[in-house]
Amino acid sequence: MSDIPNDEPLSDSPAGFAKEQLVSFIERIERLEEEKQTIADDIKDVFAEAKGSGFDTKALREILRIRKQDADQRAEHEAIVDLYMQTLGMLGES
Which NCBIfam families match (predicted)? Predict the structure, then answer.
């Protein structure tokens, strides 16, 4: 038997409130997922436009990845890569 009196609407009960909250969360997440897809499509369009203008999209993605890094992290990574390249003889001697 239910603890909710028959005359009390479900939305006024604690279970009803939880259900409304759950539905609200799900709907908000669904809207955000739609927005995320729209943004992803917009980014794809910009890359296609850049490619159509002759830019190398792989290089653009690399630049974007690098720009997200902290300056100190980036400098440390670049120093390690340079050291490895010198060790492998991939850089010209100065």
Answer: PRK13694.1
- Longest pairwise C-alpha distance within the chain: 88
Separation in Å, CA 92 to CA 20, 55, 83, 87? 66, 27, 12, 11
CA distance 56 to 53: 9
Q: What is the 3-state secondary structure (H, E, C) of 40-64?
A: HHHHHHHHHHHHHCCCCHHHHHHHH
Residue among 13, 69, 61, 87 nearest 3 (CA): 13
Please write the tens of the pLDDT for every residue from 45-86.
999 999 999 999 999 999 999 999 999 999 999 999 999 999
Distance CA 4, CA 6 (A): 6
